[in-house]
Specification:
The protein is an alpha/beta fold. It folds into two domains: 151 residues, 3-Layer(aba) Sandwich (Rossmann fold); 132 residues, Response regulator (Rossmann fold), CATH 3.40.50. Helices cover 45% and strands 17% of the residues. It contains eleven helices and twelve strands. A six-stranded parallel sheet has the order 2-1-3-4-5-11, sandwiched between helices. The longest helix has 18 residues. It is elongated and about 65 Å long.
């Protein structure tokens, strides 16, 4: 596991005042209500985050749930957060995929005295109190380095994302471009935005690769495109001919690594991206523990350690 930023934070906690009713509820020992608002709850990756939320809810005796749009919709996410502010929940964790849309609503939550943090995705300029997730730019740079390790310092690369407009995707894309930019003989052909619907995603991948048959490397930025690209490579006998590095550890991705269709994939520890925000908010409200950002790191899984993670999955461990 590689960790990049540790406890760095843009926290405005010194300026934040906890709402009186939240402090009073905590003093009385009432069950706290914490909502974790994720931007894309319909994908399998989100279920690993949900497991972390549920584990923390059980451990700390809080009413904590993960909610959010089934597919990426900033408008729906904003509406959900606004409704939670109106309900006067005790704490909020938000995957911030849009500074323009979500930073203002995060500020409104803080103004209402609700401790609000971000997780998984962190847009610039947010006044959130802390961030729990991966350094996304650095993970993109790390991905670029692995591509070069397998591919060499010349070739053509396509980048794939299921939501290219999301802040998380832009950050990872920036990292990939920065990492590959130092090699003048590597051409980044472009980025393909596939969407999250399975058949449409696969079709977008297929069309892009049929139109670019001279591609030598693929950087997939997420848990949706990574397994789908591996599937395409297997179906078309391209293992070893196209270098494929992706993100997250979906069961299909693990199998694709085992079969050589995916060279490596990078985990951001989604379980802890669900667990840590709930724990942090609970301890902040009940014990005054300072909210500090936590980098969930980058874990590389490739042909050298794939068996270990397949075994973990088979044992029921939360791999993602």
């Amino acid at each position: 596991m590689v960790s990049f930023v540790g406890g760095q934070t843009k926290s405005t906690e010194a300026e934040f005042k906890l709402a009186d009713q939240i402090a009073e509820r905590a003093k009385k020992g009432e069950q706290l209500v914490i909502r974790v608002v994720y931007h894309n709850t319909g994908i399998a990756f989100a279920q690993i985050i949900k497991l972390g939320v549920e584990a923390a809810a059980k451990e700390f005796g809080v009413d904590a749930q993960m909610i959010g749009p089934v597919e990426p919709s900033v408008g729906q996410q904003v509406a959900i957060v606004e409704s939670l502010i109106a309900r006067k929940v005790d704490g909020l964790a938000i995957s911030n995929v849009s500074a323009e849309a979500l930073n203002p609503v995060i500020e409104r939550a803080l103004d209402a005295g609700i401790p609000t943090i971000s997780f998984n995705s962190d847009a610039s300029g947010s006044k959130r109190l802390a961030f729990y997730g991966q350094d996304l730019v650095q993970s993109g740079k790390f991905e670029a380095g692995i591509l070069v390790e397998y591919m060499g310092t010349k070739g053509k690369v396509l980048i794939f994302s299921c939501d290219a407009a999301g802040a998380w995707s832009k950050d990872r894309e920036t990292g990939v471009r920065d990492g590959l930019g130092k090699y003048p003989d590597i051409e980044i052909v472009g980025i393909v935005n596939t969407g999250v619907e399975e058949q449409a995603c696969y079709a977008a991948i297929e069309n892009a690769l049929l139109a670019n048959k001279d591609i030598t490397g693929i950087a997939a930025l997420d848990a949706v495109t990574t397994p789908a690209i591996g599937r395409y490579i297997l179906r078309n006998n391209l293992a070893g001919k196209i270098i494929h590095v992706g993100h997250d550890l979906m069961p299909e991705t693990l199998q694709n690594i085992k079969e050589g269709a995916t060279n490596a994939s990078l985990s951001q520890d989604p379980y802890n991206q669900g667990y840590l925000p709930v724990k942090a908010i609970f301890e902040y409200i009940t014990k005054g523990v300072v909210l500090e950002s936590s980098d969930t790191g980058v874990l590389r899984v490739d042909e050298k350690n794939i068996d270990e993670y397949i075994q973990k999955l088979e044992k029921g461990e939360p791999i993602g």
